Amino acid sequence: MSAQATLTMTRQALRSRYEEDGFCVVPELFPADVVERAVQGMDAIRRGEYDTGTPPEESPWKPGDDPNVLCKIEMPHVASRGVRELVTHPALGKLIADLTGASKVWVWWVQLLYKPPGGKPGTSVGWHQDKQYWHAFSPDSELLTCWVALSDVTEQSGPVRFLRGSHRWGLKNIGDFFHQDIEAQKAAVPIPPGETWDEVAAIIPRGGCSVHHMLTYHGSGPNLSNAPRRSFAIHLRTERSRPADNVSELTLEQGRDLIKYLDDPFYNPLVYGKDE
């Protein structure tokens, strides 16, 4: 069997897993040199250095803030050439097209996530569904997230934990990204009749990724290892997406501004397919 045929079979298996579980893990996706330049770009952004001349969006964490809490920086790919190289890498767009059958794939938002080591307070990510923050898109839009590991993610380093099959539960609008007691928070997540809490930790080597549906519940605990957990959450959309009809009525908390760059290829690059 040829290497291409083997890859095709693997992608078919990944698509089945994504559709059935609401997420899948891809152990290898990005070349080592691309990952290394993205790591360097991440560190530069955290120092407030932007080699593109464009700063990231206003963010919960800014250079000079407490290094012992979760660092979350919005739209880092506009501030660093190394980060942008990873975010726009053709392997990413091809993967998303293979998983969804899409003819076009865009990156529409990116988040830098740096979780310091040592299990410090303030470094967990509470259970949530991404779509609860994305009301600016129509309910039937096809939106998903690629979570890229820039360091080896082990059980000790605070991996993303997914609820298998929760993408079929519908939008609950219950959850909180910034909630710190993720064990206590479980009681608030509504489990539909006949469903169970099936929690899976995404163990991913450096350069790999996970991809999850916009309705899949996920969260993560503190990083108990002795090294930082580095990642990017790359939010993507296909041609089967559009702004919500009531965008002008939404609040910032509901994601009103998240679609402000849809027509700007610098912020929202096309990563698979061709423009008309």
Could you characterize the architecture of this molecule?
The protein is an alpha+beta fold. 21% of the residues lie in helices and 21% in strands. The chain has helices spanning 3-21, 32-47, 81-87, 90-100, 182-185; strands at residues 23-26, 71-74, 105-115, 125-128, 143-149, 160-163, 199-201, 209-213, 218-220, 229-238, 270-272. Strands 1, 2, 3, 5, 8, 10 and 11 form a seven-stranded antiparallel sheet that branches.
Query: Which regions are unreliable across 5 or more consecutive residues at pLDDT < 50?
Result: none
Tally of helical runs: 5
Average pLDDT number = 92
Rg (C-alpha, Å): 18 Å
Helix content: 10-25%
N-end to C-end Cα span:
36 Å
Overall domain count = 1
CATH fold category name: Jelly Rolls
Shape: globular
What portion of residues belong to β-strands? 15-25%
What's the architecture, going by CATH?
A: Sandwich
Number of strand segments: 11
Structural class: alpha+beta
CATH homology group: q2cbj1_9rhob like domain
- CATH C-level: Mainly Beta
Largest sheet: 7 strands, antiparallel
Provide the succession of SSEs.
Answer: HEHEHHEEEEHEEEEE
